[in-house]
Amino acid sequence: MDYPPTNLLFLSKQDVDALITPEDVFAAVESVFRADGMGQVISPVKELMPAGDGGALFAMPGLLGDAGVAGVKWTNFCPNQPQGLPVCWGHVLVLSSTETGQPFAVMDATTITNQRTAGGHTVAAAKYLANPGARTMGVLGCGAQGRSAIRSFDRLFDLSRILVHTRTREKFEAFRAQAQDGLRARLDYAPTPKALAEQSEILITATTSHTPVIRAEWVPQGAFVGGVYSFYDLDSALSAQADKWVLGHRRSDGDEILDNPDFAGKLSAGDVYGTLGEIVCGKLPGRESPDERIVFTHMGMGALDIAIGNRIVEKARSLGAGQTLRLI
């Protein structure tokens, strides 16, 4: 039997890096949360499989009903990467049409992962949950996620100062020498996590620590806190002490945060105010007072990667980027 040809657009990491922008990531992520709040997103819970020493492999599927696109990100979290690579590396995204079920694109998703997390859904949350006039941001950690947060917040918010705390000042100084010229805000070093928290109107925790580094009592009134790695590096007491605790997605975060054995006895579903999607689509108000302390935690969903990947495909096609591969 002769089958009609099925062509895939293939985008390497270099292609994706050349096409992706913080503005594209933010627009795609915000649209997903709005669609999720309106019930137009399917985001199944991840199934983790062990890999390496303390690592995991897992698939992140999702469907965007309004866009007619479904897909899956095949991803990993492996501390023992070779040659000093980041713990999140070598991710792959496949996109398909919901009309025909046929795949139409495959691409590296490593940069998509980094940018849609601290530089994507945390930025979208801050738009609705941080004080509009916030000028000082603090970032705990200076790895790929922390750097993504710094670049995206600097582009999309009117910040005057970005404080960073890392394990060593040398690591911060190396990053500042590389990044300061491209930033509008001034980069400064916070000598301790406590000093970082106490001076931050927007506080992003982006480490792989399994021990809380930021204490709830250090977070000032009016602050927005984005826990990129949930409550692993953030005091879980903040979930109850904050004026609002917002999740990214009820089902996936219910499984990965509320029902996570690591947080057993420390978190209560009764303390959840709502989801970001419910806020973005207008079902719930976001920040209602300049004095509110608001914390946002989200462990990610495949729909976010799919929306960003679909936007990148549109740009690639208009610019003639990538390669066409024949699958059938």
UniProtKB/TrEMBL annotation:
Could you name the domain of life of the organism this protein comes from?
Bacteria
Q: Which organism is it from?
A: Lawsonibacter faecis
- The name under which this protein is listed is Ornithine cyclodeaminase family protein
Q: What is the lineage of its organism?
A: Bacteria, Bacillati, Bacillota, Clostridia, Eubacteriales
Q: Which GO terms describe its cellular component?
A: cytoplasm
